[in-house]
Amino acid sequence: MKSLFTFLFLFGATSLFAQSNCWTNLNSQNSGIPNSQYNTIAELPTGEFLIGSENGLIVYDGVNFNFLSSSDAPLGSKSINVISVIDSSVYIGTNNGYTVVRDYGVGSIELFLSPFTGLSGDTVTSLVMDTLNRLWIGTEEGVSVKSGLNWQLLTASVLPSNKVSGITALTSGKMAVATDLGVAIVEQASNGSYSATTFTKQNTSNGLINNNVTAIFEDSSENLWIGTQFGISKYDGTTWTKYTVSNTMGLASNDIRGFSEMPDGSILVATAFGLTTFDTAGGVNHLYSANGLAENILGDVIYCIADSSTYMVSNNQASGNDNGLHIYNGSSFSNFERENTGMPSNQPLVLAVVDKGPGNPDQMFSGFANGLYERGLGGIAQYSTQNTNLPSNSIRDLSTDDQGNLWALTNSGLSKWDDSTWTNFGSAQGLTSSYFISQAITDSTFIVSNTFSSGVVYYNGTSATAYKSFNTTGLATNTHSDFERMPNASAAIATNSGLSVFNGSSFTLYQQSAGLPSNNIKSLKYDWT
């Protein structure tokens, strides 16, 4: 059947306990990434991976490593401690404040530094959103809670210590805050005051194996996993369970760096001597250099459902020659080099796959600030204003129509590519604004939006019509985050007030009353199978 999906960002994994030599090891010797320490990794809304190092931010797109410049993401410090993807925005914590890239690739960018905001402390170690849409920021001076323009500070009067090493949002709505002197489970009373239940090695009868907590994570069964340099403590709400090298076969190091969860509920643990996995049957398994991992001292771990792979970064401070990104896919390993890809610049902004029809290989198109790059079994090509009639090199969005033609949105309008030339649609066709998202529908019709005020602008092959929420039934807002083509020359529109479906003349609105889990829709994909 055919159906429309709204996307949620999930984390998990599949079994990692296959044969040896199943790693993709990417480091400064084979990929062009710097000789550095890599502290954190996160999957972006685009499907790429953002890596935080001691020398800045690197984007890995599955083939290339590309540095982010200060214009892409201004940072208070190049030393990156944490990256959090919340909805479609990216939060980056450094040794000097944090940066927010809103609606990654299209939204605003903000830099928060303690001298100029309500942030207390410089070294940001945690960035977590609670159930009330408040941002919790952990630093060496406590937890700064940001709600809109308002700031609150939680210090040692509530927490065990001001030095915060991690924060996680609990299913209960409470927040777990890890410090160098124990863990606090924080909640807010109806009068606005905060209180906490504190866990230390002393008051848990050594259930918490050590007070200096290095990582904290709640799994899907609401177990709290707490990592230290002396092993792991797991708390199920009643009972503490401790895991150390001495009592757990398969745990090769007590120095715990990070946690993640697989779809089957197994827990991935990044340690100072490789990757450990706790499976749901009670087994503990370990993978390290003997299995093909280039660097055992890991900094972070996440799992990618899209390619069923585990992504790890390493941060050996002593030597670090093999520090980098390590990808385990369960069956093989490969090496990728940036130098041989032909990418036109260091930052791809948008991607599209073009179906060339039966018997012909699909082609992948990447849109950049300076043109288009095409790669696939059919070959490699670059397109810009210098070698085609593309009106602008600044690519903002890519889509395909019902005939498989590629359409590129630039700051000069929308253009259709027929494998030899561009057909350009701009101000002469009624596109009078600067647009940021688009969707081709047929080979002559399309919709565009600037995402906040233009409404949905529909071009019917002859003229353009702007549909806005104040004069259009079925379109609840002018704030749009995504478009997706559907059958019968229709299109779906993701808004923060529900899902609108446009049939070429009218809109139908679907909200929570129709079965949506939330009216705030971020991304769309139609299942054509």
What can you see in these coordinates?
The chain has 529 residues and is an all-beta fold. It has two domains: 240 residues, YVTN repeat-like/Quinoprotein amine dehydrogenase (Methylamine Dehydrogenase, Chain H); 180 residues, Methylamine Dehydrogenase, Chain H, CATH 2.130.10. Helix content is 0%, strand content 44%. It contains no helices and 46 strands. The strands form twelve sheets. A four-stranded antiparallel beta sheet has the order 2-29-28-27, with no helix packed on it. A four-stranded antiparallel beta sheet has the order 3-4-5-6, with no helix packed on it. A hairpin with a 5-residue loop joins strand 11 and strand 12. The protein is globular and about 75 Å long.
Fraction of helical residues: under 10%
Coarse shape: globular
Top-tier CATH class of the largest domain: Mainly Beta
Radius of gyration (CA) equals 24 Å
Provide the number of structural domains. 2
Number of strands: 46
Average the pLDDT over all residues and give the rounded result: 85
Estimate the strand proportion. 35-45%
- Structural class, from secondary structure content? mainly beta
What can be said about the biggest beta sheet?
4 strands, antiparallel
What CATH architecture of the largest domain do you see? Answer: 7 Propeller
Quaternary organisation: single chain
CATH superfamily of the largest domain: YVTN repeat-like/Quinoprotein amine dehydrogenase
In angstroms, what separates the terminal alpha carbons?
Answer: 7 Å
Classify the fold: give the CATH topology of the largest domain.
Answer: Methylamine Dehydrogenase, Chain H
> Low-confidence parts lasting 5 or more residues at pLDDT below 50?
1-21, 333-348
Number of helices: 0
Order of strands, main sheet, comes to 2-29-28-27
